[in-house]
Write a structure and sequence with these properties.
With 370 residues, the protein is of the alpha+beta class. The protein contains ten helices and 21 strands. The longest helix is centred in the C-terminal third of the chain and has 34 residues. It binds guanosine-5'-triphosphate and magnesium ion. It comes from Aerophototrophica crusticola.
């Protein structure tokens, strides 16, 4: 069914009508500004123009234009979201664990109760930092490809006794491509073999120039083992975050991204979600990738059930009907009917894509045999 005029679509995306018409032409569709097009075509145009289509029903496409829909007066400061990256064994997990021990709230609560893929640390100063536990480079790239670029800052962990290694270089490449500022944590500085200056020089070869060498990249010599300079690392993150002026509208319909998801024996499908905008509440009907459900419970990074989760807060979401994929979006929808419609549509698309892939595979095989 024809659902939207070219003009309306352009309007919703805040694009010029002429650009939408040009995009349509490239897709082989001739249309004027007043003509209507179907939802499938609209979805493609939206993607072509670099926006994120949200298929709310078979016949309707909403457009998630990154942040653009929120009014300035509704925006409030939010915690920075930090992803830790680096070469194998350079101490990413250790560093996250050590940073988490600095958390005021969990110290009060008597220690860390559980491990989830993302957590928030509250500093003595009251500032909060959200850390995403090494999703691995693949997951990071995947999230970026899906337009779910949730990371504000990358902490690049480099072991001072080992220096820049292949995965360090890869992490730099990913962070640069995503235009995310990098803070270098030169780790394992407790070791006698530590050569932090060598690390700084090696980074130079990857166009990462630290302050000491005349650049603007912050670097901190740390040790996850002894806790050396963890406060300085946190200060650097806060400093970087202040420059970015991170804000979100907590009042809107919630949107988030799945950081990790699993099938829990006792609790069923559990998705760790980082809320990007809006406030996610118990009872909300959510669509996550091609799964949906009514939020039965929200569990925070300390294992406590909470009634809601604000922007930049990671929570476990219980109540989904299936396990979504890491990197997929989670959105709140109005009715179960809509949730069903969207997920059925997405599941069908997935099946079609699978079928197409298999079809192409056999065709390639056929050509090989000729
Ligand atoms: P992968 O997840 O496998 O990529 O490794 P990782 O980067 O998470 O490293 P991990 O935290 O597992 O640490 C690797 C090893 O280095 C462990 O044996 C840690 O105990 C050790 N290690 C981490 N940080 C430090 C440090 O600051 N000093 C010393 N001496 N050892 C450290
Ligand atoms: Mg690790």
């Amino acid at each position: 069914p024809e659902v939207i005029t070219v003009g309306d679509l352009a309007n919703r995306m805040a694009e010029r009508g002429a650009d939408v018409i040009k995009t349509l032409m490239r897709m082989g569709v001739m249309a004027t500004i007043t003509q209507t097009i179907d939802a499938d075509t609209a979805e493609l145009v939206v993607q072509e123009l670099g926006h994120r289509p949200i298929r709310v029903s078979e016949a309707d496409v909403e457009i998630g234009v990154g942040g653009g829909q929120d009014r300035a007066e509704d925006m409030v400061p939010r915690a920075p979201v930090v992803t830790v990256m680096g070469h194998v064994d350079h101490g990413k997990t250790s560093l996250l664990d050590a940073l988490r021990k600095t958390d005021v709230a969990s110290r009060e609560a008597g220690g860390i109760t559980q491990h989830i893929g993302a957590y928030q640390v509250q500093l003595e100063s009251g500032s909060r930092i959200t850390f995403i536990d090494t999703p691995g480079h693949a997951a990071f790239t995947e999230m970026r490809a899906r337009g779910a670029n949730v990371t504000d800052v990358v902490i690049l962990v480099v072991a001072a006794d080992d220096g820049v290694m292949p995965q360090t270089a890869e992490a730099i490449k990913h962070a640069k491509a995503a235009k995310v500022p990098i803070i270098v944590a030169i780790n394992k500085c407790d070791l006698p073999a530590a050569k932090p200056d060598r690390v700084r020089n090696e980074l130079l070869q990857h166009d990462l120039v630290v302050e000491a060498l005349g650049g603007d990249v912050l670097d901190v010599e740390v040790s996850a083992k002894t806790g050396l300079n963890l406060d300085r690392l946190e200060e650097s993150i806060i400093l970087q975050a202040e420059i970015l002026e991170l804000k979100a509208n907590p009042g809107r319909t919630a949107e988030g991204v799945v950081v990790e998801a699993k099938l829990d024996k006792g609790r069923g499908p559990v998705a760790t979600v980082l809320v990007k905008r809006g406030t996610l509440k118990v009872g909300d009907i959510v669509v996550a990738g091609s799964e949906w459900g009514r939020v039965r419970a929200l569990v925070n990074d300390r294992g406590a059930t909470v009634p809601q989760a604000e922007p930049a807060t990671p929570v476990e979401v219980l109540g989904l009907n299936g396990v979504p994929l890491a990197g997929e979006d989670m959105v709140v929808v109005e009715t179960e009917a809509k949730a069903r419609e969207v997920t059925e549509y997405r599941q069908r698309k997935k099946r079609e894509a699978e079928a197409a892939k298999q079809g192409r595979g056999s065709l390639e095989q056929m050509f090989k045999q000729i």
